[in-house]
């Protein structure tokens, strides 16, 4: 039986795209090259900024480019498409309408995993870009499961944006002390779990092993990787089983 091909609609941002594809390779149970998942990676760095458009800072919509890229991946023979960017899922429904290939939804999969892995969960704390928060993309799915969605206060949100844009996206080390304080503040306010809802924050997780040390932190990128591997008919290595 031919392997299923995973299409990666990337470039949002480039570092997160490389991180995602590297994780798929490292966390797939395989003993030889031929047992890995074939991937077609479209690292399109020309897609306009998602957050700027959602917040009304820019009138240049990323949607036409993303639809074009999704169609290109479909025509290349991909079995599934993933978009390793939480903010971009504001456009998920419109992209999905334009292709027949299933698109794995990082937000739906993340919220569902939080519910399945946390008995009695009532509230999810979300760390994400302003675009993701303002778009209501996560609230759509927390409402679906009857959960409260909590976000950082105004001061913490500004510091989080600085961590994402001025540090991680700029290729610099993140201020882990500020980051940890933001997580603690959400927990203190009642969040049962804290979701890393921005793929740049997943890079901080890689550097500091946050989800390994704290099972109440859920990384949307790790969840997307695990679901992508499973949907392509492969197994996730034991060391990478989701908490």
Task: Describe what you observe in this structure.
This protein is an alpha/beta fold. Helices cover 49% and strands 12% of the residues. The protein has twelve helices and eight strands. Strands 2-1-3-4 form a four-stranded parallel beta sheet, sandwiched between helices. A four-stranded parallel beta sheet has the order 6-5-7-8, sandwiched between helices. The protein is globular, with a radius of gyration of 17 Å. The mean pLDDT is 94.
Key descriptive features of the protein:
243 residues, alpha/beta, four-stranded parallel sheet, 12 helices, 8 strands, 49% helix, globular
Distinct helical segment count: 12
Q: How many beta-strand elements?
A: 8
pLDDT < 50 runs, ≥5 residues: none
Beta-strand portion reads 5-15%
Looking across the biggest beta sheet, what order are the strands in?
Answer: 2-1-3-4
Structural category is alpha/beta
Kindly provide the radius of gyration, computed on alpha-carbon positions and rounded to a whole number of angstroms: 17 Å
- What fraction, in percent, of the residue positions are helical? 40-55%
**What's the end-to-end separation, in Å?**
31 Å
What's the story with the biggest beta sheet? 4 strands, parallel
Q: What would the average pLDDT be, to the nearest integer?
A: 94
Listing every helix as H and every strand as E from the N terminus to the C terminus, the arrangement reads EHEHHEHEHEHHEHHEHHEH
**What general outline do the C-alpha atoms trace?**
globular
């Amino acid at each position: 039986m031919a392997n299923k091909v995973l299409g990666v609609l990337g470039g949002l941002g480039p570092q997160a795209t490389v991180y995602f594809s590297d994780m798929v390779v490292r966390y797939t149970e395989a003993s030889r090259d031929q047992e890995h998942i074939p991937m077609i990676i479209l690292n399109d760095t020309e897609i306009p900024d998602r957050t700027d458009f959602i917040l009304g800072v820019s009138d240049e919509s990323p949607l036409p480019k993303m639809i074009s890229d999704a169609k290109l991946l479909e025509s290349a023979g991909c079995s599934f498409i993933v978009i390793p960017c939480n903010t971009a899922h504001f456009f998920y429904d419109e992209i999905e309408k334009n292709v027949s290939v299933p698109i794995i939804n990082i937000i739906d999969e993340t919220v569902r995993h939080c519910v399945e892995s946390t008995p009695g969960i009532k509230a999810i704390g979300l760390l994400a870009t302003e675009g993701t928060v303002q778009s209501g993309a996560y609230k759509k799915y927390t409402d679906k499961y009857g959960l409260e969605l909590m976000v950082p206060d105004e001061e913490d949100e500004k510091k989080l944006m600085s961590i994402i844009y001025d540090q991680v996206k700029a290729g610099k080390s993140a201020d882990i002390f500020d980051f940890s304080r933001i997580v603690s503040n959400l927990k203190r306010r009642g969040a049962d779990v804290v979701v890393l809802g921005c793929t740049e924050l997943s890079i901080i997780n890689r550097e500091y092993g946050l989800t390994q040390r704290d099972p109440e932190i859920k990384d949307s990128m790790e969840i997307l990787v695990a679901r992508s591997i499973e949907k392509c008919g492969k197994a996730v290595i034991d060391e990478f089983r989701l908490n």
